[in-house]
Amino acid sequence: MAEPSSPFSSPAGRGSVAYLTLVCLVAALSGLLFGFDTGVISGAMGWLRDQFHLSEELEGITVTAVLIGCLLGVSIAGTLSDHFGRKITLLLSAVLFLFLAVGAAMTPQSASWYTEGTAALLRRMFGLEASPEIAGLINARLVGGMGIGVASMLAPLYIAEISPPHLRGRLIALYQWAITLGILVTYFSNAILAGLAPQAAEWLGEGYWGRMFGPEVWRGMFLVGVVPAAVFLTLLLFVPESPRWLTQQGEEARAEAILARVAGPAQAAREMAEIRETIAQESGSLGQLFHRGMRVRLAIGLLLPFFSQIVGINAIIYYGPRIIEAAGYGRHDALETQVFFGLVNVVFTLVAIWKVDQLGRRPLLLAGIAGTGLAMALCGLLFYLGMGKSPLLVALCAAYLACFSFSYGPVCWIIVSEIFPTRIRGRAVAISIFSLWTGCILVSLTFPWLLKHVEPAKTFWLYALTGPVAFLFVYFFVPETKGRTLEQIETRWMH
Predict the structure, then answer these.
(1) pTM as predicted
(2) Which domains does the chain have, with CATH numbers?
(3) Strands (E), 194-240
(4) Which of 9, 28, 80, 408 gives a 20 to 30 Å CA spacing to 400?
């Protein structure tokens, strides 16, 4: 079957970097949606906490619901993508993104079948009382989180499988850059809507829309996500399928045509020969991950994503306004400071995109791990010295984000998308991303509780302690992969 007519067409007979970049940008849009849904809760939570008098435990569950959905999405994404293709599975994630935006914004005000089961479960398991709005919001974030989980595994994998070696690192890093851009867009959106909320009832009346953008502005914050989700769904219809997946299905003519479009006929012929040879040597069983030549790769795929989360990144992303308010800022000032954090995130991810295929993966990782650990240790020291309200706390959080953004953030996605064999890459990357979301849940669920019961200084020091362990692991076990085809990387592990 031919690919649909595309607005991203490239010149015949030679590869087009512009076409390749546009295709990868479409896949990376899922990262923007991931970032949007990551950032929106940080701005909405202040209003949710005030309106529904959320306890630390219920706040943690509301934030973490989307991450539990991510785990569910990752658990099915590998199998779905290996059977039905990367493109179809990405389309499914786009539909789930739309559900999250609409479902969170329009969560019902009265009890119904949609909310009663969740409310009863929270009551029985945790002894927590949740209003219909909160129960509905948790449901929407749980289902929508499945879309984030699917896309978080599949978008970097798709980009890796369609990109030539000399561009692959920076093109995969586009996904992380899109995440940071989505977070920044959300911070801007949250700050603007929060500033307009007092006038919303006057402009829109006291009915449904006036309430959505006025006293319940958190609903409007979620609703904005409909726009990028709809754009992502539409543009996905025009991107090609992964050539490596097509080759596995016996559709070599389509696969070579796609590679020729992005890399030129000569490079396409070379890559097709490597793909055929590599696929012929692969058994395709998930049990292959436990064979001798795969154990180190499995350890990297599990531990590197986990380390990237337990260093505490989501304490800053999800609970940034609370930390900023603790430094003495008001709520609106905290939202504006989050915009500054978002800019730092975007700019330093661009540094990674610029340098990852020149300097390599390892130098960026090692430098960033050292920087994030030091920043967390100094944050803890400020609280220990009674200086938690100092503007230095904001500066250290920004430094932490800068170090994370040029290292862990993009490089983790790149490495786990490169190190596994083609036939099981979908399922293997799913295992890696499952580990990432497990670490993300651990931090997001426990951070409010740790702040209250363990003290801020010890909380930040706990995150800082992961730095030396991660540094040693990367130094001794994570190889350099820059400049190699996926098949050359696979050959390296075979010997």
Answers:
(1) 0.77
(2) 29-239+290-494 (1.20.1250.20), 247-280 (no CATH)
(3) none
(4) 28
